[in-house]
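Reviewer 2 asked us to include a model.

Predict the structure of this chain.
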Amino acid sequence: MIWLCGSAVLMLGLGWIFLRLKCGSRYAGLRGLPMDGLRLRGLGEPFLLLIEQWGIGSHIPSVMFRIQRSLQRSYGMRYSAERTLLFMGEMFSYSWLLLIGGSALTLFSGEKAGILLGAGLAVILPVALVSDLHKKVRLREQNIMLELPELLNSIVLLVGAGENVQRAIIRCVESRKGDYSHPLYKELSIMTGEWESGYSFQQAFENFSKRCAVQEVSLFTTTVLLNYRRGGADFVLSLRDLSRMLWEKRKAISRTRGEQASSKLVFPMVVIFLIVIILVGTPAFMMMKM
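Predicted model (structure tokens):
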């Protein structure tokens, strides 16, 4: 077993070096592609070559589609294929490191548990990364949904005070004072930048809807584009009707989050209950035996 683990470490290391030399500067253009959460970007380039040459995406099309769809919702349609490739490279990099770590642990300790642990984690961790990606996308959509009614209320007030829609949105973005950490205002700031770059109101709004990839944002965009030319009381009335509907959806999301939070407390409460029973029951049990 020790000889086998030593051979595995050597083969994994030499294989990575061979693939890295074969890559050369092939993926140099992807190094500066903005994408959050990639910690092993440089280490994963050999695996990008492996993924392309072996056609791994064609063997697991449903998984690749779900990953690419989630990345499109987070970063938009542009460079979605490249980001999917980078994410797959990250997954393979973690698996490679865990296999080497498990083999090295068995090599130095002589215990079989090291290689078994490394192999198990090499399978589980990529699945956890994909699950975490989907969870982040759902959280982003919920955050957009929770903030959208507040934005719509502000737009209704500003339009009712005499501002046009474009100027009302710019005022809402400027009220953040440069803090665009929230995904909705981040996309709005990009939209206002497109207006300044020469995009039309309609085109910029449609791009904003595609980047958010949320049904309620699409409804908001459609309502604005259909009614903003009319202006006046009809436009404000349409926005107020939409605002009431969005507030109901916000309440539903808040209730769902509250239920999820309460369900997460069940396990700690059960553990605390068992600990209390042990602390109270152990002295009584010892006294009965005496």
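The mean pLDDT is 81. The CA atoms of residues 103 and 115 lie 5 Å apart. We have added this to the supplementary material.
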